[in-house]
Amino acid sequence: MSYQIPKFRHPDLPVNDLGYTKADYEGSISSLCAGCGHDSISGAIVMACHELSIEPHKIAKLSGIGCSSKSPTYFLGNSHGFNSVHGRMPSVVTGAAMANRDLMYLGVSGDGDTASIGMGQFAHVARRNLNMVYIVMNNGCYGLTKGQDSATADEGSASKKGDANVYSAIDLCGTALQMGATFVARSFSGDKGQLVPLIKAAITHRGFALIDVISPCVTFNNNPGSTKSYEFVREHAEATGTVDFVPMRREITTDYKPGFSHEVTMHDGSSIHLYKVDEELDPFNRRSAMMTLEDHRETGSILTGLIYMDRDSRDLHDVLETSQRPLNELREGDLCPGNKMLENINASLR
After folding, report:
1. Of 206, 208, 233, 345, which is closest to residue 296 (Cα–Cα)?
2. What residues does each domain of the chain span?
3. For residue 138, what is the enclosing H or E element?
4. 248: how many CB neighbours lie within 10 A of its CB?
5. What architecture is the 22-321 domain classified under in CATH?
């Protein structure tokens, strides 16, 4: 049986600055398990892109393999999309971004797709600071193949089968910090109030932006022994503070609570306001972010919110001084400047 979203919508649905309703950013009806945290993340992506007034055709969504990598079907149905092979999404994004810097690249992956077969790709796309948003839907198991523990499952955590995991977990936020990522955040699929502003901030950040989202698997990993269950995350999550994203077109004074600790102006003129709760964390200091992550890990708590951001980030295009124009817009004269230019290049190498 197939399902389709009704095309009829209420004529008075709210529209953004481009005249689009939120429905214009939705996709097909989800075939994931009812209650899956991945669907909540998809909803947060839809909300963020709609509120930022991003033209759907200016977005490219890419994924690998797994339950999480199926989710791009369920959001941004009018955007470009590519479902790659297992663990290889970062390579595809890199190629696409080098060819056309005008699109906003959104990579969606899972803990298996990223922390196991794709770990090498993840590490290199982070250290190269590719201008992209990388969202990991992290449920600590392989939900598509019956719930085996993934590399992010905490030591001692028990899956639905009942066996405790004997291996230490890979912390994707800590790994990203070590590899040089310039925007690192963690959130919970059940906390849309925190997740949506983080996605907005990640989209406007210039460089590699990781959001590790704890997303419970309701079928295989939402039992009392799991550290990725809804109940465990709600009881053990500790936020770094309140994050408020303010587009440059809106009145700033109406968008944040008094007493915010930091205001950061982004590259496009929008700003992030941070109201810190954890005074030990300096979100603009990589060492502080890594130490705070480790402190929370030792106490068994889950640190969420904005963990680190480089305010002076230079992305891969800046480093390589790539063409400002998409490659498909370059003409023969741009690509083949002639013998004189070749002679100059050869002379410079002598």
Report:
1. 233
2. 22-321
3. strand 132-138
4. 12
5. 3-Layer(aba) Sandwich (3.40)
